[in-house]
Amino acid sequence: KSATKWNGVKAMLEIVGCSPEETAYFGDDYDDLEPIQMCGIGVAVANAIDEVRAVADDIAQSNDADGVARFIAQRFLR
Predict the structure, then answer these.
(1) Single pTM value for the model
(2) For the chain, percent helix, then strand, then coil, each to nearest 5?
């Protein structure tokens, strides 16, 4: 029951010394709901389920259009 994406993200953030508020998270399905809501920037891809798109801070292009890579390049690597 404790094997969730959010618990994995929290463990990784602790190791690298970052807070959730300093983190961007990308997702598309039910197990991504909590991390998208808890991280500083929660991004759904365009082909995500409705529930994920509804709680995301932003929407990237679909997985098939390299949405995550394009979002990172446009928003974080300028």
Answers:
(1) 0.90
(2) 55, 15, 30
